[in-house]
From TrEMBL:
This is Adenine DNA glycosylase. It is an enzyme of class 3 (hydrolase). Its EC number is 3.2.2.31. The keyword Nuclease does not apply. Keywords: 4Fe-4S, DNA damage, DNA repair, Glycosidase, Hydrolase, Iron, Iron-sulfur, Metal-binding. The keyword DNA repair applies. GO terms for molecular function: purine-specific mismatch base pair DNA N-glycosylase activity. It catalyses: Hydrolyzes free adenine bases from 7,8-dihydro-8-oxoguanine:adenine mismatched double-stranded DNA, leaving an apurinic site. Residues 38-189 form the HhH-GPD domain. Belongs to the Nth/MutY family. Adenine glycosylase active on G-A mispairs. MutY also corrects error-prone DNA synthesis past GO lesions which are due to the oxidatively damaged form of guanine: 7,8-dihydro-8-oxoguanine (8-oxo-dGTP).
Length: 358
DNA sequence: CACTCGTGGTG
DNA sequence: TCACCAAGAGT
């Protein structure tokens, strides 16, 4: 009997061990695209409910294209990396308006679209159109680095090329999509970052990492993120049962999401009496401070935020020049706006204070 | 190209 | 508490 190829071993394992995930039961490139974007840097358990919500609300790429960006972001709320949702929405418009709602059918065409990079293009091309092109994601880096003993730093520039070439040598011609699913599933559920199941692994005798006991050091990954501290004082300004909010702009976190009037300070949270903020100096003398929240710690990949919320109520007649882009929203509107999880947590915790708003 | 973009889970 | 991670892409 002939020795099985890497791909055959992998696919046999996959057929016996794969999870039943909804996006694996379709060839619809829209559904596959949706799932792939949701799963970027995101665990299946976290992404799954969002996938269900999106296919429910936006059944086709045209439905997504016709939606308001605000509503798309609202549905995406809590999943993070919000540019994924904004780019996906933009690309849906392109496909609906310029491509007659037809998804491009090749890797080369797919990778041109905003939000579709090398990984996602390969995933859609192979899963939906059976194109022979290897996916290279974190799982693939890990599986290949270990099995073949590749010590190239996966954070380096050449890693993409090295692992991509190896992956494309290994991929099967007859079922590239299944091969791609299989190697990722194997990485995600068996050849895991910590505590892989090497003892009973399919590649037990062939795996370089296992032979040399290097599971813990492969794949090699340099770069450590340095985390900045930021201090946010939010002023939750209420007037006539409405709250003042604005959409966040580019070049900072949470682009496209809405938050309250924000005063950011450098080394510590604000001391009210010392602020030289013009708007606050207008507001505070004519307002009632209804509550000062506890300090929230919110952790992001490259920064940790300490935040405090000041619930400030203005009397009905007070009028003041609003900062650019800020508007008063009813409670219903506030609920419907896409917001950072930090804001959502505050509103939930202080729900009683806002109960009278509706 | 090094850096930035969230959130929640884990050892 | 903390470092690291999880189906990457844009700039």
């Amino acid at each position: 009997m002939e020795r099985q190829t890497f791909s055959e071993v992998l696919q046999n394992w996959y057929h016996r061990n794969k999870r039943d995930l909804p996006w694996r039961n379709t060839k619809d490139p829209y559904m596959i695209w949706l799932s792939e974007v949701i799963l970027q840097q995101t665990r299946v358990v976290q992404g799954l409910p969002y996938y269900e919500k999106f296919v429910e609300k936006y059944a086709t790429v045209v439905d997504l294209a016709n939606a308001d960006e605000k509503d798309v972001l609202r549905l995406w709320q809590g999943l993070g990396y919000y540019s994924r949702a904004r780019n996906m929405h933009q690309t849906a418009k392109i496909i609906a308006d310029e491509l007659n709602g037809e998804f491009p059918g090749t890797y080369a065409e797919l990778v041109k679209l905003k939000g579709i990079g090398p990984y996602t293009a390969a995933a859609i091309a192979s899963f939906a159109f059976d194109e022979k092109v290897a996916v290279v994601d974190g799982n693939v880096y890990r599986v290949l680095a270990r099995v073949f003993g590749v010590e190239t730093d996966i954070a380096s520039h050449e890693a993409k090329k090295v692992f991509s070439e190896l992956a494309n040598e290994l991929i099967s011609s007859n079922s590239p999509g299944t091969h791609n699913q299989a190697i990722m599933e194997f990485g995600a559920t068996y050849c895991t970052p910590a505590n892989p199941g090497c003892m009973f692994c399919l590649f037990h005798y062939d795996c370089e990492a296992n032979a040399k006991g290097k599971q813990a050091v492969l794949p090699v990954k340099s770069k450590k993120v340095k985390v900045k501290k930021r201090y946010f004082d939010y002023f939750v300004i209420e007037q006539n049962s409405k709250l003042l909010m604005a959409k966040r702009g580019p070049k900072d976190i949470w682009e496209g999401l809405y938050d309250f009037y924000l005063v950011e300070t450098k080394d510590e949270l604000l001391r009210l009496e010392e602020t030289d903020n013009d708007f606050l100096q207008e507001v505070l003398p004519i307002a009632t401070i209804k509550s000062e929240s506890a300090v929230y710690k919110h952790v992001l990949t490259h920064q940790t935020i300490e935040a405090k919320f000041w619930h400030v109520v203005l009397n009905e007649t007070a009028s003041l020049p609003l900062p650019l882009d800020y508007e008063f929203y009813t409670w219903q509107e506030v609920e419907d706006l896409p917001k950072p999880i930090l804001i959502e947590k505050y509103l939930k915790k202080h729900h009683a204070e806002f109960a009278s708003l509706g």
